[in-house]
Structure formats: structure tokens, C-alpha cells
Write a structure and sequence with these properties.
The chain has helices at residues 2-7, 37-45, 50-53, 60-78, 89-98, 102-122, 129-149, 161-173, 188-193, 199-217, 222-240, 246-270, 276-285, 290-307, 316-332, 337-354, and strands spanning 11-17, 20-26. By secondary structure, it is mainly alpha-helical. It folds into 4 domains: 1-57, no CATH class; 60-181, no CATH class; 200-270; 276-354. Strands 1-2 form a two-stranded antiparallel sheet. The chain is elongated, with a radius of gyration of 29 Å. The relative contact order is 0.05.
């Protein structure tokens, strides 16, 4: 029992693999039983309640049974036999399609981690080599699904060095150079998109990237991003009826990406900063002419600066002074009382997003 307890003592391990610094946690130990003491241990453990001693130690044969069970569960989720001898891109697409469902992705991610944990324990037993290729395939599926669906549960991390080498080798084979999903506005996103070999795959990757970006930024500029979200939903709905036209679908989605990129250029054209642009858009959406909206944005920024203080949005008195300053600007610019009262809440929300810091 002492031997089992000592080798299973957890600890942090630091290793360098393929130039990467790794810090992982040891989660098991190995005991080599030269004299057959384990047989006597089993006799001794029979004197205890089974629930008290269950899982104290395991024979390698049990681990092989477990990894087979995990593989079968993964096969069921993917609807595919991972032991298939020839592996074509169409097979990969079938697996990625199966993971479009979020619940399936969650189950898949847990099972893959369990598969990796078990493989780490049975290597370097020669019988474990049959599972190495399956692990590589699972790694490829995980990375491609991560890039396509942006589900962080699919990230491959915290593996011990011998598995990291297998993982890196599997990723290089399919030409992945970007291991983390990048923002849809990032130039690297276009390189990431090249990993997708079908138009359908590209469409799904762009939809995921656009949806994630809109959700992240909608509070900064509700007018613009809500409009973008509605356009995205409309495009998706339209192409449900035109499934064969995936190339056109991708082109329409890329136009939405271009709209986001045009934001900075629009601010420059109008002579506004990126902070001012959401205020301008809101005022324009309420019917103000361009020149009127631009002047009011300038007045609002000046008023916000006069009452601004550190952490103002968290201090009720300071927040109320900001609300009052915004209301006065609206009234000075000829906005009637009822509309000014309605607009001040929206403009205060924008101020909370864009003027938490004054720089």
C-alpha cells in the first residue's frame, strides 16, 4: 500500500517538447511487480469493503479494456469507424459534420481526453501502438473542429510529453499552422480558412467566426452589430433553400466580414474616432442628419470628459452626474424632453463601454 501511495503522489512536471515549454500534472504512477506481491495484496484487500478499496490500483489489462470502450463510444458519436484503414478527407468531413451539435462536441471532447489519458498510461507497451494512429486521428478532428466551431473544450492541452509529440506530428500532417482560432477581422483568419477543403466547411467556419465576433462586440456598438447579426441570420436562412450554391454562400458571408473591416475606414472618413462612431450611429438611427450627429457627438464627448472620474460607472453618484451631463447636451441641441429622456439611457450605456478609461 505504501508503494502504491508513493508512486501515485501528484506533482507538477516541466518538459520542453518541440521547442514548447510544458507544465503538466502527473496523475498516475507505475509499479513493476518483480516478485508477484500484487497477488498477496489482492488477498489482503478482500478483507476490506469493496467500495473502500476500489480503484486503489489497476492492472494494464484493465486499461486496454477501458480504452477500447472509450473508442467505441467515440465511434458512436462520430458515426464512423476510427479503425478504418484508408483515411480520406471525406471521412474527416463526416466526423466534423457529426460535431456540429454542441452536446456531441462536449461528449466528444471529454472522451478524447479520457482516451489520451489512458493511452499515456499504456504506452510504451507494444500493444498500445494500435491506438496511436487513432489518437492522431482524434487530434486532427479536434483541431479542425476547434477552428471550425470555436469550441474551447476541443483544445488539446495538459498532455504529457510523449503524447504532445504525437499530437504535434498529427497536426503537421494536415497542414495546420494556426492552432488557435483567430478573430474574423485578423489577416491570419484567411490562412486559417485555407485548412477547410470544402466550401461547406468554409461557410461553417465563417459563420462561427462572425457569430463569435458579433457576440463579443455587440455591447460596444449595438446599432451596427445588431444589424450585422440580422444580416447573418438572413443569409443563413436564405441559403438553407439553396444548399448547392455554397460558393455564393461563402461570398455573401465574406461580405459581412468586409463590413466589419470597413468600420475603421468609416470612422476616418467621418473624421471621428472609433469611440465616437457608435454614438454617431445611434444618433443617425434616430433620424439626425450627418452634420447634426457629428456635432452632437463632439458635444457629448466634451461633456463626458468634464464629469469623468476613475471607476465612474461603479459609483452611483458619478454615474448619475454622467447621465445628467448627457441629458443636458441633448436638450441644448434641441432634442425635446421625451426623446432626450429615452436617448440618455442608450447613450449612457455606450459611455460605460467606451469611456471607462479616458485616453
Amino acid at each position: 500500500m505504501q508503494a502504491i501511495a508513493r508512486v501515485n503522489r501528484p506533482c507538477k512536471l516541466r518538459r520542453t517538447v518541440d521547442g514548447m515549454e510544458l507544465e503538466v500534472e502527473k496523475d498516475y504512477g507505475l509499479i513493476v511487480d518483480y516478485f508477484g506481491i500484487a497477488r498477496e495484496l489482492e488477498d489482503a484487500l478482500e478483507k476490506y469493503e469493496r467500495t473502500d478499496v476500489e480503484g486503489i490500483y489497476e492492472k494494464p489489462e484493465g486499461l486496454f479494456e477501458q480504452i477500447e470502450q472509450v473508442r467505441e463510444q467515440i465511434d458512436q458519436i462520430l458515426g464512423f469507424d476510427l479503425e478504418k484503414e484508408r483515411w480520406e478527407w471525406e471521412d474527416m468531413e463526416q466526423c466534423l459534420d457529426a460535431l456540429e451539435d454542441e452536446d456531441k462536441r462536449k461528449q466528444f471532447a471529454l472522451l478524447v481526453r479520457n482516451f489520451g489519458r489512458l493511452l499515456n498510461q499504456i504506452l510504451p507497451d507494444p500493444k498500445a501502438l494500435d491506438h496511436v494512429d487513432i489518437f492522431k486521428r482524434l487530434t486532427q478532428i479536434c483541431y479542425l473542429a476547434l477552428l471550425r466551431y470555436r469550441d474551447s473544450r476541443l483544445k488539446q492541452r495538459d498532455y504529457l510529453p510523449k503524447l504532445v509529440k504525437l499530437l504535434n506530428e498529427a497536426v503537421r500532417v494536415i497542414g495546420i499552422t494556426v492552432l488557435e482560432p483567430v478573430k474574423v477581422t485578423d489577416e491570419e483568419f484567411l490562412n486559417q480558412l485555407r485548412v477547410e477543403r470544402t466550401e461547406k466547411g468554409k461557410a461553417r467556419a465563417i459563420i462561427s467566426a462572425l457569430s463569435a465576433y458579433i457576440s463579443e462586440h455587440i455591447h460596444e456598438d449595438p446599432q451596427f452589430y445588431q444589424s450585422l447579426r440580422e444580416q447573418l441570420e438572413a443569409i443563413i436562412e436564405e441559403f438553407k433553400e439553396r444548399r448547392e450554391e455554397t460558393k455564393e454562400f461563402v461570398a455573401e458571408l465574406m461580405k459581412l466580414r468586409e463590413r466589419i473591416l470597413q468600420q475603421e475606414r468609416e470612422a476616418e472618413r467621418l473624421g471621428l474616432t472609433r469611440k465616437q462612431l457608435p454614438f454617431f450611429r445611434f444618433l443617425r438611427s434616430q433620424g439626425l442628419r450627418e452634420e447634426e450627429a457629428r456635432k452632437m457627438v463632439s458635444d457629448l464627448e466634451q461633456a463626458i470628459g468634464e464629469v469623468w472620474q476613475r471607476d465612474w460607472w461603479m459609483i452611483e453618484g458619478a454615474r448619475q452626474r454622467m447621465r445628467t451631463a448627457i441629458y443636458r447636451v441633448l436638450r441644448r441641441n434641441g432634442i425635446e424632453r421625451e426623446r432626450a429622456e429615452k436617448w440618455q439611457s442608450e447613450l449612457l450605456s455606450l459611455a460605460e463601454q467606451h469611456y471607462r478609461r479616458w485616453d
